[in-house]
Amino acid sequence: MEQTIRAEMVASVHSLIAEVGDEVVVGDTLVILESMKMEIPVVVEAPGTVSEISVAPGDVVREGDVIAILI
Asked: Domains (ranges, CATH) in the chain?
């Protein structure tokens, strides 16, 4: 089943941890966001394979923006 990972707040993309094709499990970090000088990891809530990463370092995301898609 496809799973869409979305931003929960306005933030800058600090770094990408996962890559397309990576197998991930619950608790793995996909991306690290930065907001107000705090680093916020975006973690996986269900296992899957990263099929798409929709952001790049330096991008600004808003609440609800797609960060990644898992299959």
From this structure: 3-70 (2.40.50.100)
